[in-house]
């Protein structure tokens, strides 16, 4: 019932395009027949809401769709390794040089987001979206406290971090090759002790 193209046709086009196929789709329509709902869902819509509608319900449904989309996008891979730091998302474990590291759920989510994107400079708001979700209601600056606590747990010297760098004016980045790791390899190859 849209101009030039129906919602069904648009859904078919989105689902057929490899770059758009995973885009969440919520149909908001005046078509109330059960047959129309079934067609919309069979074509690939994630949800179907008929008019008249409650705006709060639509927002809740959008959040639910985005949570599912975020989860499916984050599922593979489940194990990340940077230097001696290893995170297994499936087992919800973190080890540093083979020793277990106890993290809070927020610390774990932040570390996972950064380990999935090494060397990427995250803004605080990007870290919130990636790790804590769109419905996070805390202040952006609370990320600083979580990073400080995370550094205490994974850094050999939290005052001079080798894993999580502060990117001035931006936010934080997890180095793909921790500081000191290259020096240790160079010393080992030269016959010196690491």
Structure description:
With 194 residues, this protein is an alpha+beta fold. The chain has two domains: 7-74, Response regulator (Rossmann fold), CATH 3.40.50.2300; 79-181, Winged helix-like DNA-binding domain superfamily/Winged helix DNA-binding domain (Arc Repressor Mutant, subunit A), CATH 1.10.10. Helices cover 43% and strands 16% of the residues. It has seven helices and nine strands; from the N terminus they run αβαβαββββαβααββα. The strands form three sheets. It has a four-stranded antiparallel beta sheet with strand order 3-4-5-6, with helices on one face. It has a three-stranded antiparallel beta sheet with strand order 7-9-8. A hairpin with a 3-residue loop joins strand 8 (164-167) and strand 9. Helix 4 packs across helix 6 (142-154). The longest helix has 20 residues, at 55-74. The chain is elongated.
Biggest sheet: strands, sense, closure?
4 strands, antiparallel
Whole-number mean pLDDT: 83
Q: What structural class is derived from the secondary structure elements?
A: alpha+beta
Helix run count:
7
Indicate the CATH topology of the largest domain: Arc Repressor Mutant, subunit A
Number of strands: 9
Radius of gyration (CA) equals 22 Å
- Biggest sheet: strand arrangement: 3-4-5-6
TL;DR?
With about 190 residues, the protein is α+β, with helices and mostly antiparallel strands. Helices cover about 45% and strands about 15% of the residues.
Write the layout of secondary structure elements.
Elements: H1 7-16, E1 26-29, H2 34-43, E2 47-50, H3 55-74, E3 79-82, E4 85-88, E5 93-96, E6 99-100, H4 105-116, E7 122-123, H5 124-132, H6 142-154, E8 164-167, E9 171-174, H7 181-189
Parallel strand pairs: 1-2
Antiparallel strand pairs: 3-4, 4-5, 5-6, 7-9, 8-9
Helix pairs in contact: 4-5, 4-6
């Amino acid at each position: 019932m849209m101009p030039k193209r129906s919602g069904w046709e648009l859904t078919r086009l989105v689902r057929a395009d490899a770059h758009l196929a995973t885009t969440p789709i919520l149909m908001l329509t005046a078509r109330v027949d059960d047959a129309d709902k079934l067609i919309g869902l069979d074509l690939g819509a994630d949800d179907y809401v008929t008019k008249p509608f409650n705006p709060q319900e639509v927002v809740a449904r959008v959040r639910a769709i985005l949570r599912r989309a975020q989860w499916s996008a984050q599922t593979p891979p489940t194990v990340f390794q940077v230097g001696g730091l290893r995170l297994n998302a499936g087992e919800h474990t973190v080890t540093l040089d083979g020793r277990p590291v106890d993290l809070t759920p927020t610390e774990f989510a932040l570390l996972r987001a950064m380990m999935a994107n090494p060397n990427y400079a995250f803004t605080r708001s990007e870290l919130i979206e990636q790790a804590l979700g769109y419905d996070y209601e805390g202040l952006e600056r609370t990320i600083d406290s979580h990073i400080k606590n995370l550094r205490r747990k994974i850094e050999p010297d939290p005052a001079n971090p080798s894993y999580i760098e502060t990117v001035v004016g931006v936010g934080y980045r997890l180095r793909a090759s921790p500081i000191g790791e290259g020096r240790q390899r160079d010393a080992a190859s030269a016959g010196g002790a690491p």
